Amino acid sequence: MGSRIRTAQKQARELGRLRTGYSIPNQDPKKRPRPVKSKTWVLSSHSEHYVTAAAEAWGGKVERWQPQGNGAPQFRVITEAEQLDAILPPGDPLSQANEMWNKGGCVRRCDGETEQISRHPCLCLAEHGPEWHLLRQDLYTKDKVCAATSRLNVILPDMPDVGVWRVETHSWYAANELAGTVDMVLSGTGGNGLVPVTLRIEPRTRVAGGQTKHFPVVVVEIRGVTTRQALTGPLPTAVALDPTGSSQAVAAIEAPKGRDWIAEARATLTSDDVRDLWMEAQNEGAVHPKGTDPLSKQLMAIAAEKDAENAKQNRDPGPDEDGAYEAEVVDEAPAPPSWPAVAQPRA
Hints:
Strand content: 25-35%
């Protein structure tokens, strides 16, 4: 039997980063590279084959990239995709803090009330007031206030290897919206199971002080399922991996492991037994909740066969020796199978 260190924090390996911008060389070689906002997702990783797979999936050209500072060289692709299909992993995938960094590392990390390094009350609030986050728009005070830093771990299901990609944004507006969305999902799933989402870069505009600012915001949207489905509890893994019921999810459902659902269905006596079996298969993630997969259709066909067999057995047995009938019998074609309300595939 396997075992785990109970006090160790379990976390998936980080495969790379998802970014909403990149940097280009400054015309003045003495100055730092100039940051550029991107309308499409930028992926970076230490592993070239991860970035190559991203370029094949979402376009763009793979290039070697040197992060600012003393970081090791990496690979990067500026894709053509404004949105990516992703999955929120189990647990709490979001980490947030108001942070300030310099060449020596992180000098401030605040939860909004207490600065965690100095253990003093929020320094930005004390120095600049409740609207301190707006000062980051001002070049003269940008390096004197913290940035609302959000780090969201997601799974990219079409990428190679098992691990997470980290989305990092310093947007004040994204910090509020990401926390609201993730906390709402966690309230329904309890942090158990996978949740399909779409990551979008949404352009925003803000007008204040007579000036118009344009900026991108990272948006997380529930993908392929309704709000009701996302909040009623953990989704079956097959649904989370492909909520639209396309070929990849169907292939996984066609070859379920552990139980032979077809054999069990044929061994039942009535169509009601087959419907109950379908509910068990749904609870174990072997069928799609909408009933669009091949296994669901096979079970429905078997239920129809059971109805037809039972109807045949209940047909008019004919008169007895005295020529009398036990009851009047009306021949009717068996009705098509209809799942009960609790077993109806969800719309």
